Amino acid sequence: MKFINNKLRIENAIIQNIAQRYNTPAYCYSYKQLKDNVNHFKKNFSSISPLICFAIKSNTNINLIKEIKKFGLGADVVSMGELMIALKAGINPKKIVFSGVGKTSKEINYAIDNKILLINAESKSEIKEIEKIAKIKKTQVQVGIRLNPNTDAKTLNQISTGKKENKFGVNDKIFYELVEYCKNSKNITLKCLSVHIGSQILDYKPYEKMLKVIGNVIKKAKFNFEYIDLGGGMGISYEKNTKKLNYKKYNLAIKKFLKGRKSKIIFEPGRSIIGNTAVLISKIIYIKRNNVKNFVIIDAAMNDLMRPALYGAVHQILPAIKKNKKSKRAYEFVGPICESTDKFTTIKNFQEVNEKDIIVIRDVGAYGMSLSSNYNLRPKPIEILIKGSKIKVIKKRQKHKDII
Fold first, then answer.
1. Does 338 participate in catalysis according to the annotation?
2. Which single residue of 97, 212, 276, 383 could bond 27 by disulfide (Cβ 3.0 to 4.6 Å)?
């Protein structure tokens, strides 16, 4: 995404023209950025040849999942719906892992019937439920056990998943019990140790600590795991001057961990693949001034992009057309929903804007549309994929009649 002649573009498409043709709000994705992200990820971890399973929860657009499948990626799913969409997109079942703390009997049945690679179990009760269903079906099911390594990912509390107070995984004591239980089961084949310590991680050191914990647990468990699922959580730069996660150092740490082991690594990246591929295009409806600041009221809202309201995430905002004149007062960009949390960010020294101007909210590809809702009975935005000069609608704008 760049300015050419003061007009913001995604690849060869001008944002202003997209807004005029398709209206706003609109999610707009770059195919080139998606391709670059996948290749960058593959290149950095090529020495360990991992199975890369895209975290479907980060973006559930089937057309984007189809493109991701073409790059050879599998899928990490956390619900029956996500498993269904991954299969419909053509992803090989033997490249699908099913995570999550609360899989229902219906979901487990569906996963077993579709012969996916792994069901990563997160409790003794879940292991027993998988075993019970497998016994009825007279089959063997490949499972992983998710370990809670009690590792602080140094990220937002709301997206931390690897500390002992989080609901995910089991502690080392229960982990050893479950390893022994699986060994003695006729219908369960233990294949994987699984972990995931959080999301939007920008420092490789928590991963190093996690690997050390895993190494000690494997040694004590005295079990050879065919797969080690390290989850995802790799962060991206949402704000200017944010440091980037050092993939090379993480890769070196994994290589060190794998020395003397024959396990295959599984990754579950979502944000690092899709996060910076998209912008949310929006129009300024009104500008409301008070004694403190100017409220810039846009037609995108917290139902379209939940992250800022949900856990205070910050996204950069850019104008579709660059001007030289700066505003003397701070702008607070807000949506039209009847909640005080329906605000995106406050910016000082932004260029002067007028009503009906077009702006874009950056880096919304992950947990943008997948967290969207119909709150205030607002229809969901259109989704568009840009490939060079080609513009393709990959999901139509919802209409009021669709939701009423």
1. yes
2. 383
Q: Rounded to the nearest 5°, which phi and psi values hold at 54?
A: -65, 130
Whether the domain at 2-29+275-403 and the domain at 31-272 fall into the same CATH topology: no
**The two three-digit tokens of residue 168, written as one number:** 């995910």
HEC string for 362-397? CCCCCCCHHHCCCHHHCCCCEEEEEECCEEEEEECC
Domain boundaries in the chain? Answer: 2-29+275-403, 31-272
Work out the burial of residue 167: count CB atoms within 10 Å of its CB; fewer than 13 is exposed, 13-18 middle, 19 or more buried: exposed
Catalytic residue among 28, 53, 182, 338: 338
pLDDT in tens, the chain (404 residues): 899 999 999 999 999 999 999 999 999 999 999 999 999 999 999 999 999 999 999 999 999 999 999 999 999 999 999 999 999 999 999 999 999 999 999 999 999 999 999 999 999 999 999 999 999 999 999 999 999 887 665 555 554 454 566 667 888 899 999 999 999 999 999 999 999 888 889 988 989 999 999 999 999 999 999 999 999 989 998 888 778 889 999 999 999 999 989 999 999 999 999 999 999 999 999 999 988 789 999 999 999 999 999 989 999 999 999 998 999 889 999 999 999 999 999 999 999 999 999 999 999 999 999 999 999 999 999 999 999 999 999 999 999 999 99
- Taking domain 2-29+275-403, whether its CATH number is 2.20.28.10 is answered by no
